[in-house]
Amino acid sequence: MAYTLSFHVGGTFHHDHNARRSHPEHADLSRQNLNYNWERDPGQLVAESYKTELAAYNQKQIDQRHPKRQIKDLYKHLYSLYDTAKEKDKATRTHKYSNKAKCPEKEFIIQIGDDENHPPHDISNRILMDYWYGFSERNPNLLPTQFAIHGDEATTHAHTDVIPKAFHETGLMKQYSFENALKEMGFTTYFDKDQGRRITAFEQWMNRERNVLKQICKEYDLDIEPTRSESRKYYLSKQDYIAQEEERKAQERIANIQRSIDKKQSELAELTKMEQDIKAHLITAQQVRDIPYKKTLIGGKITLDEEDFKSLKTTAERVDQTDSRERKIEQRELHLACQESDYRQKFQDIDRELDRYYKERTAKTLDTVLDSVDSSKDTLKQFIRDQNLTHQFQVYRHQIEEERLKKTVSRDKSFDDFLVR
Hints:
It contains 14 helices and eleven strands. The protein is an alpha+beta fold. The strands form four sheets. Strands 2-4-6-5-3 form a five-stranded antiparallel β-sheet. Strands 1-9 form a two-stranded parallel sheet. β7 and β8 form a beta hairpin. α6 packs across α10 (201-219) and α11 packs antiparallel against α13 (306-386). Mean pLDDT is 78; it is low at 231-235.
């Protein structure tokens, strides 16, 4: 039996809840022995890990005559900024403020299976413990503040809380950055042309951790279902997801229209077959002329054989039926022609709609690439300023400009010589 494997970023989290200092109502007290909790005070860990960097930052503020900008408690300071950003998001109903703020801590929730289909709780517990034992070795730039296994809930799962530390960056906020921490571990955001979107460093890192968990599950003879990325269903941004859903709905409308057309064509084919069957039972005009008849002596009437009379009668009835059916067929054909025109117009509208979505997605992708280029330019400018390379860079730019002018003059001179010759 295959199980799902969930590895995702948590939302709001609480260390007391993770440590089971109070038991929630949905917890099964008989399985408390399957719980596990390891933790460090996050504020203390941040203070110890950034002691030197914070002291240098505060000294810089004093030297620049901005003593009020000093930070006493880095952990509380970052949380204060993040909480303020979330309040602004709540007021404006956006995410633009919290996306730019630095969340001082991240939580990842790991779960094997779901409420209806999961391994035995003790097996899940051992798998999560094996994963935890190798966490710090795999992730030297993610410093854990807590790892808690909840084996007393419907499905055993783990909470992993971490703070970042980019050891090779300069500057306090550059070191306290999940993006730079992941970069030092070999994960950087890039643009995938095949998927038409950015693959974030976090996504790459989480895929790596999922593969580690899958390998551990394999050692316990557990099969794991493919993830969405492995089944070619990728994580999408909100805009791409909306565009994809609109495209799917448009394709469904096209399929419904095609089914309607097929149904009408089937009805037309059935009527045509009925018409052919009727014509097969009719006698021809030549056969009517060849029917022998006799004139009566009185009254100027004619007599026919009984079989010939029946044939003529049947033919007359069939002709009436044929006329009626032909009128129905003509009405149906007219109705189908009108519907075909409507469907053709709907197809054109859908094509224009799809074309618009494709153009919007392409434009958004281009904007993302341009934003990435602008960000790289800003990063390069900041690096040049931080390293006091502004003068050298100006000299380098001057040299490049002189070389370009020399090539232009040389090319113009060669062209003038050619004209003279």
